[in-house]
């Protein structure tokens, strides 16, 4: 659950607005940001409770704070105010999830698995199914090549497959579904369904309202860092569509 969560990015070298000595002095006393330091208040007081078995879509226009909110829930981004409570460790499965480009797909499966807290034994058991699920080897033996030789879609598929191999308490997916071809998207949707049935909670950030309608039962709409609507996926998506078409 998120309780009044605020996330503020501190950006260095953003160019000070007032560089005068008096301004610097008054900043010293008011403990304001240093010169050249600018703050971006990306998430502003978001509160919600997510239950087991729910699949929640996060929607909102570009820069509304969706990815930031997920990073904060995953513990990758500190919160400036408010709190996040969670049963189990939430894992963020993003297109940017850290895999090593110079290592082969095989090594990345092992490293990624370890990073998610799987044991070596579990990785050995699931290795083949991860590779099969990713479909990386459908067009030749790519899994033994370095990841930098993969197309962006292939990389994203492998990331999704590694993360989806583990049963997560809270799984967060950032636009992972948007990549990959239709067959892979069907497989990943089916896997998300399974993860939900195993009583985990799934968060999905997507620009594709269609994916949210299909995979999620609830949606949270963020706009300019503020929670604008939270409710059944269809209702929230309808309202969001009315909002975006009027812009
Ligand atoms: N590392 C960062 N440093 C400073 N500001 C950032 C950083 N990352 C994001 N922001 C700012 O935070 C705000 C929210 O960004 P965020 O990426 O969370 O939005 P989003 O809803 O996921 O956007 P998109 O739909 O484009 O992916 C934006 O104003 C963005 O400029």
Automatic annotation (TrEMBL):
Mind telling me which GO cellular component terms the entry cites? membrane
Q: Which UniProt keywords apply?
A: ATP-binding, Nucleotide-binding, Transport
* InterPro entries, sorted: AAA+_ATPase, ABC_transporter-like_ATP-bd, ABC_transpr_TagH-like, Bact_Polysacc_Export_ATP-bd, P-loop_NTPase
Keyword Transport present in the record's keywords: the answer is: yes
Please tell me whether the keyword Nucleotide-binding is annotated for this protein: yes
Question: According to its UniProt record, what is one Pfam family this protein matches?
Answer: ABC_tran
A GO molecular function annotation here is: ATP hydrolysis activity
Q: Domain (ABC transporter): give its ranges.
A: 23-244
Similarity section: Belongs to the ABC transporter superfamily.
What is the recorded name of this protein?
A: Teichoic acid ABC transporter ATP-binding protein
